[in-house]
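In this notation, each integer encodes one residue's backbone shape. One such record reads:

___
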Amino acid sequence: MKKVLKRVLSLMLAFIMIAAVLVPSFSAATVNDLPIIYVIGKNSPIYDKNGKKIHPSGGIDTLIEKNMDQLTKSFALSVASGNWSHYGDAIYNIVLQKFKDFPLDENGEISNGSYVRENDEPKKKTSGFTLTDYYFYYDSRIDPFVNAKKLNSYIDKVLAATGKKKVQLVGRCLGGTIVSAFLTKYGCSKVDTLLYYASAAQGVIPISCFFAGDIKFDSDALQRYALTDMEDELSDIMKLAIKLAYVTSTFQLGTQTVSSIYANVAKTLYPRIVLAVYGTCPGYWAMIRDDYYEEAKKVLFGDNMQKYEKLIAKIDNYHNKVFKKLPQTLKKCKKNGLKIVNITKYNQAMPPLFTNCLKQADNLVEVESASMGATCANMEKTLSSGYITYLENAGKDKYLSPDLIVDASSCVFPDYTWFIKDLGHETFPASVNKLIMKIFGSKTQYTVLSNSKYPQFMKYDKSTKAVSAVTRPDTSKDEPNKEPGYFSKILSFFTIFMEIVRKLLGLK
């Protein structure tokens, strides 16, 4: 009897020990099965009042080719007369052809009947949620607070369809401004986890510079952008021509010439062009960084502040209530139980057309803004030895990327912010989606230490489409991953344009 009892007790003890090992593993694998609402970037299709899609649309290169004779003649006339309004008017007419029905009125309202189609009724689903179940589409032009109201309504519909009490949110690119406005206006009681993904919620330098008129033609940056990020679009002969022009300094002469032309045209033409494209759209103003915001208003509205009074009231309302207070808003939400994570991309050059174009970015959004505060070296540089020593002495070097490019310690949420190298703004690979699903599947706040497979600093391999840890030093010889964007035609147009300039001005 005693032997039997001992065996029973031994079996029970063994069972308890096995259970003690298995239970934690089971808990860690438990899926937080909540619906995911993916607030996309700016590319929700926009239709005119007749149902024809007007945005996004291609064709700017076709319009340039179609109007090249007029551009050439007006340029020659401006050179001969010294009156650059001829050339400015020719450029403006091309812009009007391209964006005829896109801009809003002087009040920042839709007055021409253009629209974005309403979101579909959320499908009923109670488990197995994925990133593609509930996309939230919106009109990128209008006041983010209006879109936030629509998002709030959509969240309620998703909750009703799924029977859940909370959702998970992804704010991608411009979508980051929408979820930020939503949190400001409605709070976080309906949201379990919020992910900012390549987000524009804290501004975008190219768009800020575009609005503020901070345009600069940098030959070094242009050469790098052309020979790396645009590699697949250039023939070997064109690459060679760019290299030869750079070495002989003719490229420098070219960019200086273009800069002087821009200076002549910009004063009168520039505000007209921006207002004919994005300048009347509160949604795009939401991406203007604080250090450019006031200058952008001066450049675009000038002496017409009264005319644009209602538009200015809308953009000021968002900038002051949402943009400037976002870190405080997020910290408050975090204290109230919201789980917050951020995925930022880096090592992809921005378009070389403005002063800060050498900052670390993902082609469009700079790392500093997307990560909400990371400190970075410029493109093709590393952080200084003095700065690295400071991090080590402060015990913050654990947040330093192994390639010595990014310091995450200065982020608003350094423990919840991931950085993926060589991944362009418009690419959202399945390998990163796996990380996102791990984050959304966690019952607790996911951190950069939660899973060794997904460390804080990773690198994207464009050939395998996989992510792996960045190593120290990063010895890869691969060119940075090229990602096409809406600036990808710049070089070809620039080359044609420079040939015209050289011929007209008699340059060798």
Summary: The chain is about 45% helix and 10% strand. The first helix runs from residue 2 to 29. The longest strand covers residues 339-346.
